[in-house]
Each structure stands twice: as C-alpha cells, then as structure tokens.
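As agreed, record minuted below.
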Amino acid sequence: MRPEALEALLRVQTESYGNPSGAHLLARQARRVLDDAREVMAAALGADAGEVVFTGGGTEADNLAVFGGGEPGGTVVCTAIEHHAVLHPVESLGGRVVPVDARGIVDLDALAGALDDRVRLVSVMLANNESGVVQPLPDVARVVRERAPRAVLHTDAVQAFHWVDVATLARDADLISVSAHKFGGPKGVGALVVRKGTPLRAMLLGGGQERELRSGTQNVAGIASMAAAAEVTVATRVDTVARVGALRDRLADGLREQIGGTTESGVADHDRSHKVAGSCHLCFEEIESEALLFLLERGGVYASAASSCASGAQEPSHVLAAMGVPRELAQGSLRLSLGWPSSQDDVDLALEVVPGGVAQLRKMAGALR
C-alpha cells in the first residue's frame, strides 16, 4: 500500500468510524469522508461524483456491470482475454466471445461481426491483467456505437488505472471498473463508474446505499484509502510510468538476452508501446511454470504464472491461448509485475534468480530424458 493510503485507512478507521447512513455526529462525519472520496475518485476517472458507485472490489464491479448493465434480456459480448470476473459472467449468460490477435489486441472486424441490435452490453478491458496489453478502447467504442447503438460499453480498468490516463482513454465507456489494490490501496474495495442515463440493475438489495445500485454499509475507511491512493497515483503517474517502464525494459531485455528459448508475450522486436509499464510477461521453452515459481520464491522473487487470482492452477492461461501461444510454450509462462515501489535492486535480483531457475529446471529435464 502507498503510505498515503495506509495513513488514510488508519485515520478514518479510528476517527470517522460511524455508519454513513445514520444521522448522528459520527455518521455525518463518515458521510463527509465518503463524499470527499467520491469527489476524488470521480476526478481521477473522468466522471461526475454522482456517477461513482463504490463496491467491494473489481470482481464485484465487473459482475455488477455484466449482469446489470444495459436493457434486460439482451446479449452480452466480451473478448477472449477478459479477466474471469467478466468472462465467466458472460459465459454464464450465453454471451458471445470475440477473438484477439497475436499481440492480444481485440479483432475489431470480429467484434463488429458479433454485434447487432440484440446486444445489450459489450465489455472490453482497458489493459489485460496478464499480458499488460492496452486495448484501443476509442476504436472499440466507435464500432459498438455503429453496430449496436443500444448497447452499453463496459471496460475493466482494474489493471489500467495505475499506468494509463483512464479518464481520457475510457471517456467513451458507459461503465468503468477499478480496484484499489492495483494502485496502492487496500484489498476488498473498488468502484464502478455508471454514466448518467446508463441502465443498470442492482445485484445487492437491502439498505439502498449507492443510489440503490449497491446496498450494504460502505467500507468508509477502505474507500478513503482508495481515494488517497488514486490521488497520488494520478499526481505521480507520468513519472512513475517513465521510471518503472525503464525498469521493466531492463528486466525483459536482460532475461531475453540471458535465457535462450524465451518469448515475450505479445511483443515483437522489443516494441512494448502497447503494454502498460509494469508488465513483464515471458514464456520459456522446456520448463513448467509451477516448478519455476517454487525456485523463484526460494530466491526471493515472488511471481505468478497467469492471473494472480488463478495462480497455482495447472491449466495454461486462457489469455495466452487466445493469443495463439502453443500450449507447451504457455506451460512455461512467467508473469513478473512491477509497481510504484519497484527498484533497480528488485530488477537485479530477478535478473540473477530467474535465469538460474530456468537453467536448473532445463538441466533436470535433460537428465530425465
């Protein structure tokens, strides 16, 4: 967590712990904290304060958008690389899934072919949580408006907010999901932007909080902490992207140079201009990710093979499969994520530990042949 977010969390939890739906002094204090946080999040996301709905995280925000967005009874559409918080709801509704190219970018022609007057919602994530690839959301919006004018456009910006100007890139989206822990806030708190006039049906009913779109007593301390993290993220984003992007390039280039049989996912000729700065995703031939992750942890490098939410699963990433990565290569995938506190020392450690781990596994595999 960012220090500013932790300070806000502790301060509000101890000083403004009232229920913001109440009428007494502590409740009114909590309500002011909530209102202030809503203003901060709205500015960070390019929305009006009344368009921000607080949720229990990115998964809830995504589910609320997919299950509740648009006119009832229509078809839902998403890309094949969406986070499971979008993909599974779409599949459960019998929706349509659109392919991507080898870089992991949505096929706009295929998207156009999947749209018609029956489509009520289209969900295309702004940045992929595994590959780090940024989608051309303005182009997506143009296709949606032309081919399915009644559809609501949702974007999962959970992975994007830390790295890109969501307020600008997602200005054409009707629904925008974010999650605090991806930009230095606490886990278990997020938000969904719901543009004025966008039809949305609530999933949680009860107290009528959040304009009756998300009932339940708000996590005031967590929301204030998220707003503090968002504010410092926006203020420092340009410098952070430049610094962390250089670290990521040094890491990716160094690993590709040291380890033969390495493929950088979605990247050709070292061009990473379509990826967020904190994403380094590689596939190594002749190894299995699970064994590599164990060796890396012993060396002090904590990584994942696919989505953080799915780490430990033996099945290769659905994102890599959608990008056309062969199964045997995808089984050797490694997701190294950098963030605002990442340093040259972190990169130095990874450049030492990862090649050694890969070499050890390949040597063991060779001995067993």
Observations:
- The chain has a mean pLDDT of 95.
